[in-house]
Amino acid sequence: MPRSTPNILVTGTPGVGKSSLCAEVVKQVNFEWIEISKVAKSRECISGYDEELNCPIIDEDKVIDELDPVVESGGKIIEYHGCDFFPERWFDKVFVVRANNTILYDRLQERAYSDLKIRKNIECEIFQSILEEAMSSYEPSIIQELHNNNASDMEQNTAIIVEWINTWLQNNEKSKNEMFGSK
Fold it and tell me: Among residues 120, 89, 92, 86, which one has the least CA distance to residue 104?
């Protein structure tokens, strides 16, 4: 059965502003924001710890098993810094958030990331790793790249996502009405 509300994925390198963007979007739409890192910790979907990068390693299969029934109903904004392990059927739209490398560097430094972790994340952004991961994991037509360097970008990106959701809902309602003969 088709969903009555869409699911979206907000993905990108750590520090590009995914969480801030999701927080702004959920202020305007009645969607559930699912932060994969928090889900992995709260539902014991951690398979180890990366000492070099100083971060937990999530058990991707366990995360999928935990969230599959939750995502099915729609109305979810999933946020994570990776995307290739999520089932394609989960998402109606994928937003890949990007940031200027100098701005990203400063943001990661403010988070007190190690030099190695900053370097690896900057390289990820330079090589467009998350964008390429999304392009190879999902239908390219559902992927949209957003640049998030400042407050103005954040405001514009929030509007883009909210407008996309509203358009999807309107189109879905029209389709439903046509299917059942209503106007």
Answer: 120
